[in-house]
């Protein structure tokens, strides 16, 4: 880390001036603004002299939370925020944020890292590269999925996933579960025990052969969520309708990537969304519909809310910035890059999603980062072949671009308030999955996970990203903001120019019960 050391007993003001003169807009590391201070006197026991003996002070911040935007210095002791206020006492280290916006570190509550796949498919990002990429894009908490295999136990999936994370994560992480085989043992023993141990959310699939549940199984699992206070996330697409459409497309020789979008029209999402809402109503339990793509599912969720049902909803960058045309306008295989489910829709639907973010229809904004290399036999070209769309691994990368995209095109384009940005990207995901207030806000006692924002021109090219994927679907866009600094537990992990690795220092987080409140829309 490049830190400027103060020489001799120069005043704090002088050191701040020195720091400012070293500030390097975009060209270099924001952390060049650091001023290292000599250690303060300690009392005989070695403990700090007072609570104002900060390890780090982030000075002159424009602090944004889901409730307010205000000016303050942020005093950090160890891994936590100790104090907010004007003119805080000097810290051992100082960073002058000079009026820049500082938000809570992002909570990416829907991302896939090193999730076991059927060969030859393999995810490009593990907990090392995935959390590296997250940190460089301002995300300091990730919640990927420990996925049960049909015929396997949930416990085994969790144990395996811990092994995959161990010693690798650079930022903190929790696990969602994926329940694909709700046997009596899973429903009566494993799931309740895991919820008690801090795995308080799980995803249910209404599609994908290796994951999908029938309606009776969904009701069984939702009943466990109700009884034990867990959050159920639902992937809502009608499996049979997709299979029927896929076969007809294949029979007609329509197998290029672009036909993926035709096999999964909004109707199949609408039907499954309505069914999920009805099943949750039957059990009387909240659910969260993930990766909502467009108007038809949105209408179902609005209907549910207008009837007072506790239905939460998530959307993702691909539904704001991509359309079905990104899967191809001809039979080229290039569009395999953007094959994900549900597929991106059209410009009109992008606006529907923006409207839902602004008016509170959406609760959380996640990446659904599902990283597969394009030009690779374990990625979008299984076994090295250009395959029919049915066999293309579903998913796109986005863990690093999630926050900068929404900050640029939402906040700086005047669509979203800063408070709403924080609510959608940090506070609400932390509440939905039982991590708030430790995560998702800026307040004394919370983890010192912070993002200092830079504004300017940031051309998006894959070479500047830190994932292990060989493309970004957003290449060619120029963003107007990027994190100038990311702190995870009070440590710099990204300084606007360089990544500061800390493998294994990302901590596993046990989640509490969800604390989101239902809201009408
Ligand atoms: N769809 C999912 O449901 N998960 C991962 C990626 C995708 O496209
Ligand atoms: Zn899904
Ligand atoms: Zn997903």
Outline, from the CA principal axes? Answer: globular
> Strand fraction band?
15-25%
CA radius of gyration? 23 Å
Which ions, cofactors or small ligands are bound in this entry? dihydropyrimidine-2,4(1H,3H)-dione, zinc ion
* Annotation field: number of helices: 13
Describe the sheet with the most strands: 10 strands, mixed
Strands, count: 20
What is the first-to-last residue Cα distance?
47 Å
The low-pLDDT segments are 1-28, 32-51
Overall mean pLDDT score? Answer: 91
Structural class: alpha/beta
* Secondary structure: helix percent: 25-40%
Task: Please give a handful of descriptors for the protein shown.
single chain, alpha/beta, ten-stranded mixed sheet, seven-stranded parallel sheet, 20 strands, about 30% helix, globular, disordered N terminus, binds dihydropyrimidine-2,4(1H,3H)-dione, binds zinc ion
Provide structural commentary:
By secondary structure, the chain is of the alpha/beta class. It is 29% helix and 19% strand. It has helices at residues 12-21, 127-136, 154-165, 184-196, 215-228, 239-251, 259-263, 266-283, 295-306, 318-321, 347-359, 402-412, 418-432; strands spanning 4-5, 35-36, 54-64, 69-77, 80-85, 91-96, 101-104, 106-108, 139-142, 145-147, 172-173, 176-178, 201-205, 231-235, 287-289, 311-315, 364-365, 450-459, 478-488, 491-494. Strands 1, 2, 3, 4, 5, 6, 7, 18, 19 and 20 form a ten-stranded mixed β-sheet that branches. Strands 10-12-13-14-15-16-17 form a seven-stranded parallel β-sheet. A three-stranded parallel β-sheet has the order 8-9-11. Helix 4 (184-196) packs parallel to helix 5 and helix 8 (266-283) packs parallel to helix 9 (295-306). The chain starts with a strand and ends in a 27-residue tail after the last strand. Bound molecules: dihydropyrimidine-2,4(1H,3H)-dione (DUC) and zinc ion (2 copies). The site of dihydropyrimidine-2,4(1H,3H)-dione has 8 residues, from loops.
């Amino acid at each position: 880390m490049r830190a400027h050391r103060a020489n001799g007993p120069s005043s704090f003001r002088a050191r701040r001036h020195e720091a400012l003169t070293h500030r390097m807009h975009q060209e270099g590391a924001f952390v060049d603004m650091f001023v290292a201070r000599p250690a303060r006197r300690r009392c005989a026991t070695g403990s700090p002299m007072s609570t104002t003996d900060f390890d780090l002070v982030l000075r002159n911040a424009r602090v944004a939370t889901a409730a307010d935007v205000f000016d303050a210095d942020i005093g950090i002791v160890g891994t936590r925020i100790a104090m907010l206020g004007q003119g805080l006492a000097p810290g051992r280290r100082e960073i002058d944020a000079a009026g820049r916006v500082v938000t809570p570190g992002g909570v990416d509550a829907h991302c896939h890292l090193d999730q076991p796949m059927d060969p030859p498919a393999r995810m490009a990002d593990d907990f090392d590269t995935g959390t590296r990429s997250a940190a460089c894009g301002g995300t300091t908490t990730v919640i990927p999925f420990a996925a049960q295999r049909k015929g396997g136990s949930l416990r085994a999936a969790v144990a395996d996933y811990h092994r995959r994370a161990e010693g690798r994560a650079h930022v903190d992480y929790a696990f969602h579960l994926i329940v694909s085989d709700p046997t009596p043992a899973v429903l009566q023993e494993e799931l309740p025990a895991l919820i008690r141990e801090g795995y308080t959310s799980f995803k249910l699939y209404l599609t994908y052969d290796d994951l999908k549940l029938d309606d009776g199984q969904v009701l069984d699992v939702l009943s466990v969520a109700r009884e034990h206070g867990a959050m159920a996330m639902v992937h809502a697409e009608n499996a049979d309708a997709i299979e029927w459409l896929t076969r007809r497309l294949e029979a007609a020789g329509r197998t290029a990537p672009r036909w993926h979008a035709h096999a999964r029209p909004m109707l199949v999402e609408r039907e499954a969304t309505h069914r999920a809402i009805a099943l949750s109503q039957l059990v009387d339990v909240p659910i969260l519909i993930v990766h909502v793509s467009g108007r038809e599912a949105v209408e179902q969720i609005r209907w549910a809310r207008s009837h007072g049902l506790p239905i939460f909803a998530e959307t993702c960058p691909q539904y704001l910035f991509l359309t079905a045309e990104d899967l191809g306008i001809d039979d080229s295989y290039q569009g395999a890059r953007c094959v994900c489910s549900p597929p991106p829709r059209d410009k009109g639907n992008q606006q529907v999603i923006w409207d839902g973010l602004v008016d509170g229809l959406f609760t959380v904004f996640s990446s659904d980062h599902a990283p597969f290399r394009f030009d690779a036999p374990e990625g979008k070209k299984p076994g090295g072949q250009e395959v029919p769309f049915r066999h293309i691994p579903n998913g796109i990368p986005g863990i690093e671009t999630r926050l900068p995209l929404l900050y640029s095109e939402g906040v700086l384009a005047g669509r979203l308030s800063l408070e709403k940005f924080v609510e959608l990207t940090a506070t609400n995901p932390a509440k939905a999955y039982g991590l708030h207030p430790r995560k998702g806000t800026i307040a004394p006692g919370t983890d010192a996970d912070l993002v200092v924002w830079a504004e300017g021109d940031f051309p998006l090219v894959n070479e500047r990203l830190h994932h292990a994927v060989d493309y970004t679907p957003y290449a060619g866009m120029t963003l107007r903001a990027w994190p100038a600094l990311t702190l995870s537990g009070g440590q710099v992990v990204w300084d606007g120019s360089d990544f500061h690795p800390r493998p294994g220092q990302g901590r596993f987080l046990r989640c509490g019960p969800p604390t989101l409140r239902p809201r009408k829309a």
